[in-house]
């Protein structure tokens, strides 16, 4: 059971990312010294919001340049740290040219490089890994196949591969590797956070896949009907809180399904019409027939195998463990959806 010295620095990989930025904010507000690894510390569009946060809080920010593919990059930022948050990993769902090079290799090698550095750094007591529900299941149809009513921490994604749902596969192999490396030693503990699709405002200028995924919601491309797709959702601020609890709660352990609830396109659209009125007039009202989606999907770059195994299926998630182990209370999902799209509306008006 690790006890942390309050004055030792903490390290965050991919610190400028959508999820990590909220985590860094929480750490800085609590007065921590954050060793933040980024690929491009001189790019103010990517790190400007972090330096601004450091100026407004009692914590300190030290930026380090590090790429997941570089085996030596993480020793210097990790020096003296007791806590390491490993959030960096490519999060891209559509338009990936080379799955191995763009997704699998950085996810797998990045986990190895960060955790090899942890093994070399005697001060580290705990690693919090940003995994995903994508490491828990691949396709929504997997739930029916499993005979269960909801996915939980005992499930592993067995249906994704380098050719089908490659992002989900990258998260699965990375998390499995992390547990293997953790099991081979007994100095540091590993705690995994497995969020669903993360929504909510972005602190930085660059846009995660989370901000791109619903970009067509308002522009009429999904009007009047959208695919019958259901998402496990969670607020980005809850995900950051989950990471902090996983780090600082001495007894925290294992994997954590981090999903507040599920919503389909049409259910999200209903919330948007309630909150944004006429601005959301072109949001979807109905679900489109699956056969039509299946026929059209190659035209918009979506694999038919994805349509077959996800459209019309309702995934469900059991979030009891994170509420019990970390004491996390999820915020209201309708408010999260509204905050997410408020930022999208504001950025469209600029
Ligand atoms: P994001 O904003 O795109 O952040 C990804 C971070 O990883 C960025 O800092 C990015 O750096 C870094 N990264 C990517 N490739 C790298 C490389 N080769 N070397 C070093 N850094 C690299 O996405 P996010 O949504 O915050 O995702 C953060 C983590 O949460 C990921 O592990 C993702 O799988 C996980 N997650 C996200 C969601 C979600 O819905 N957003 C859900 C579940 C899990 P650059 O800025 O330089 O590209």
From TrEMBL:
Name by which UniProt lists this protein: Diaminohydroxyphosphoribosylaminopyrimidine deaminase
Molecular function as annotated in GO: oxidoreductase activity, acting on the CH-OH group of donors, NAD or NADP as acceptor
Keyword Nucleotidyltransferase: no
Family of this protein: Belongs to the NAD(P)-dependent epimerase/dehydratase family. Dihydroflavonol-4-reductase subfamily.
Origin organism lineage: Bacteria, Pseudomonadati, Pseudomonadota, Gammaproteobacteria, Vibrionales
Organism: Veronia pacifica
Annotated ranges, domain NAD-dependent epimerase/dehydratase: 10-259
Keywords assigned by UniProt, alphabetized: Oxidoreductase
Pfam families in alphabetical order: Epimerase
Transmembrane segments annotated in the record for this chain: none
InterPro entries in the cross-refs: Epimerase_deHydtase, NAD(P)-bd_dom_sf, NAD(P)_dehydrat-like
